[in-house]
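anyone seen this seq b4? input:
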Amino acid sequence: MIKRVVRRYWVFAPVLAVALALLVSTAVRSSDDNSASGYLLKAASQKLQLQASYSLERRFAGRVAARQDADVGFELGGRVANMRVNDGDRVRLGDVLATLDTELLVTERSQLQAQLADNQARLQLNLANTERHQSLQASGFASQQRLDELLTEQKTLAASGDALRAALENVDSRLRKATLRAPYEGVVARRFADVGTVVGAGSPVIRLQEVAAMEAEVGVPVDFALSLAAGQQVSLLLRGERLEGRLLTVGADVNPVTNTVTVRALLPSDARAFNGDIIQLLVNDTVPTAGFWIPADAITDGVRGRWTVYALVAEPQAQRVEARDVQIHHARADRVFVTGALADGETIVAAGVHRLVPGQQVALDDPVAAPQLGQTLEAH
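predicted toks r here
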């Protein structure tokens, strides 16, 4: 009977062994959990350094302008006979740009030359007659009246000759002005006329832009204009490229629309700038506010819309996280300038604040370097 009972319960021996193994495994895990309860998160830290102020580089937008950019044309009207240049052509001082039809001027010049030749012939005859009459008068064979008439005629012919020569000079001047020449070295920005076009006196035929160092024309607020002076070096930003220019002039009046003063700066000769390009003038601005530069990752949302920084308070076995309200004065991608419930020399959590809560104990990780005190950019 006893042997039968033993055989009957011996079947449950494997089940008991499995249950015993599960109990041992649970005990081991419980022991591991107890040891893990003492683990502390590591927090990246940074020691605060109080700054008396922070510096910005303000951006003021303007445009690039050629030092000389003129619409040139003929001083006299007429029909365009020849155009020597096209848009984009580079010309030197004195190069021919265009010419007018001069057929009428050439004819007029020929007429004047013929009239002058006739005048000179009559003048030569007058001189000969005058000389003969003066000889005859000395012998008593000529009247004084006739001699006076010849002398008066001589003066009249001389005056007519001077008038004809002046008219010839006028025609020659008009012939020269029928040729349009480049007033300076430059690039043809635009052509307004073609061959056969009848243009009026002073009408623009070609827009010529000087090939020389370009200028930047920028409007700045009065407060910044007072800090600028002609001749000083300034920083410019053209299509993302930083350039060093020289300030030429500071305007003397305030634009009533923009309430700014226009300043002109000379660009470097090797600047790849085009007339009308957008350019920015960079001006240093120091804000006298004491505060701290901290990493942008050290800022988190606080209660009621406030910004919060986690300070680290030393305790015997760890560091305790403590929330501090701050105010952001200036921000950029990697750092912010703040003021608030912080003190010089305090240590804050520099990154990973989303993993922490106030009152939590943490261990210090490797410190994060304080942000450099370089300048930031602010657009205007």
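The first strand starts at residue 41 and ends at 47. The chain has four domains: 41-56+289-379, 58-68+213-285, 69-101+178-211, 110-163. kinda curious what u guys think
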